[in-house]
Design brief:
single chain; alpha+beta; Diaminopimelate Epimerase, Chain A, domain 1; 2 domains; 17-stranded mixed sheet; 17% helix; 43% strand; amino-acid biosynthesis; cytoplasm; EC 5.1.1.7; lysine biosynthesis
Length: 268
């Protein structure tokens, strides 16, 4: 069948966006996700997002990594908000459901401010750190992140089965100025460095902000600039976390995918 798709990017993190209110890929979507996200034999993307109807919220974001696994994706969520506005589902403000729970967001032009879930703590792991911001993130400070072996070192940490039986994303951080850090990320599910990672920069901003007693951090990634703000609750949790940055439609098209008719879930 022919599928209409749109391509969005948020600071270089790119996603295939599909209006999933009228169909699904059936009970086993993984082969189709992998095919469409393949950069040689498909459209090519870090992940795929289906926008689905929900009785209690404006929409539900169903996010898949390029390998078909599911997780929360901050940049993907910001793109989902922009796509939902394009579809006419929302206007400037929205409340929607993702795999890690309910989120709110506002959009102005191409800038999306996304409310992330609360984070209990940033843990110390030897000389490194860990936080779960909807997805797991290992973090390490390095002197010159531009010159660092992100893929080699990141892959080794990601595959450390003793420490991370289900794997983890891995972030490397350099300090550029008192309120600005630079982050590069090796992403689980993509199995490579991506140009940006929303949940990753959020984790890094919480780590750096707590260390420096700051609640608004600017982040530079290879794909562009983001900002994270937050508050510390009386219980020590990170609360009111907001990830802000651009989300842009790159192109749209139609692709034929061999989906058996009995696997298509027709909603209308």
């Amino acid at each position: 069948m022919d599928i209409n798709f749109y391509k969005y990017q948020g600071t270089g993190n790119d996603f295939i966006m599909i209006d999933g209110r009228t169909f699904s890929f059936g009970p086993d979507p993984i082969p189709y996700i992998q095919q469409l996200c393949h950069r040689k034999f498909g459209i090519g993307a870090d992940g795929l997002i289906l926008i689905q109807s929900h009785a209690d919220y404006d929409f539900e974001m169903c996010y898949y990594n390029a390998d078909g696994s599911q997780s929360m994706c901050g940049n993907g969520a910001r793109c989902a908000v922009a796509f939902s506005k394009f579809l006419g589902i929302i206007d400037q403000n929205t409340t929607f459901l993702a795999i890690d729970g309910v989120h709110t967001a506002t959009i102005s032009g191409n800038s999306v401010a996304l409310r992330m879930g609360d984070v209990k703590e940033v843990q110390s792991i030897d000389q490194d750190f860990f936080a779960n911001t909807g997805s797991p993130h290992h973090m390490r400070f390095v002197d010159k992140v531009n010159e660092f072996d992100v893929v080699g070192t990141g892959r080794a940490i990601r595959r450390d089965k003793q420490r991370y039986p289900e794997g983890t994303n891995v972030n490397f951080i350099s300090i550029l100025s008192p309120d600005t850090i630079q982050v590069r990320t090796y992403e689980r599910g993509v199995e490579d460095e991506t140009l940006s990672c929303g949940t990753g920069v959020t984790a890094c901003a919480l780590l750096y902000g707590e260390q420096k007693q700051m609640n608004k951090i600017n982040i530079q990634t290879p794909g562009g600039n983001l900002q994270v703000s937050f508050e510390k609750g009386i219980n020590g949790n990170f609360e009111k976390i907001v990830l802000t940055g651009p989300a842009d439609q790159v192109f749209s098209g139609t692709i034929n995918v061999d989906i058996p008719s009995d696997a298509i879930n027709e909603y209308n």
